């Protein structure tokens, strides 16, 4: 498993990195069969330390948790506790959905962009209908079944997930609707 443990404008020591690896290994060995990589980023927000942890599993699922505390170790413990709870909650579902999967989930590269939001003061600028790109990043699009995509979206607590449908290789979207239900967009079946 590959770890990337870093600090955002703060220095983290070797002892913290070792602690993070040891604790995440224990959690992942308990619940997740084949983790592939983990990213842990520490930052400071006012007087609190923030720990953001993201773990990618070979099943294509991504578990993520954020913890905040006055101490850096406590922020990690808070994040690890949330990750543990998340993986424990979905262990049975992960096992049932992926028991027959012999290969890791295939990931495709894609571009991800953050566009500047517009407000009333920007109306004159937006008349030309050109959105200003604030950030450009690379992202991965997993090949999943619809059920796995819904589970991935729930695990990540995300409002939307774009994925490649395993049945027909088309791009699909699942999203959480305002009424609490899940919506699924499959352009291939549009009539």
Main traits of this protein?
191 residues, Double Stranded RNA Binding Domain, SHC Adaptor Protein, 2 domains, five-stranded mixed β-sheet, four-stranded mixed β-sheet, 3 helices, 9 strands
Provide a compact summary of the structure.
29% of the residues lie in helices and 38% in strands. It has helices spanning 14-31, 72-98, 146-156; strands spanning 2-7, 35-45, 48-57, 62-69, 107-115, 133-144, 160-165, 171-176, 182-185.
Cα radius of gyration in angstroms = 19 Å
Total domain modules: 2
DSSP strand tally: 9
Poorly predicted runs are none
CATH superfamily of the largest domain: Ribosome hibernation promotion factor-like
CATH architecture of the largest domain: 2-Layer Sandwich
Secondary-structure content class: alpha+beta
The amount of beta strand, in percent, is 35-45%
Give me the side-by-side strand order of the main sheet: 5-6-7-8-9
Biggest β-sheet: count, sense, barrel? 5 strands, mixed
Q: What is the CATH topology classification name of the largest domain?
A: Double Stranded RNA Binding Domain
Average pLDDT level:
79
How far apart are the first and last residues' alpha carbons, in Å? 44 Å
CATH class of the largest domain: Alpha Beta
Can you count the helices? Answer: 3
Instruction: Please tell me what the overall shape is.
Output: globular
Estimated helix fraction? 25-40%
N to C succession of SSEs: EHEEEHEEHEEE
């Amino acid at each position: 498993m590959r770890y990337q443990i870093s600090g955002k404008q703060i220095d983290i020591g070797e002892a913290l990195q070792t602690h993070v690896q040891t604790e995440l290994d224990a959690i992942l060995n308990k619940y997740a069969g084949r983790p592939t990589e983990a990213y842990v980023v520490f930052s400071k927000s006012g007087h609190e330390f923030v720990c953001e942890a993201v773990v990618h599993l070979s099943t294509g699922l991504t578990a993520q948790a954020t913890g905040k505390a006055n101490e850096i170790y406590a922020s990690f413990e808070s994040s690890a506790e949330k990750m543990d709870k998340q993986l424990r909650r979905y262990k049975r579902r992960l096992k049932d959905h992926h028991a027959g999967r012999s290969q890791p989930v295939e990931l495709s590269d894609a571009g991800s962009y953050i566009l500047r939001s517009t407000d009333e003061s920007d109306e004159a600028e937006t008349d030309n209908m050109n959105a200003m790109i604030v950030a450009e990043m690379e992202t991965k699009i997993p090949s999943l079944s619809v059920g796995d995509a819904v589970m991935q979206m729930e695990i990540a607590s995300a409002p939307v997930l774009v994925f490649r449908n395993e049945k027909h290789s088309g791009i699909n979207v699942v999203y959480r609707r305002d009424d609490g239900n899940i919506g699924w967009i499959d352009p291939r079946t549009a009539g």
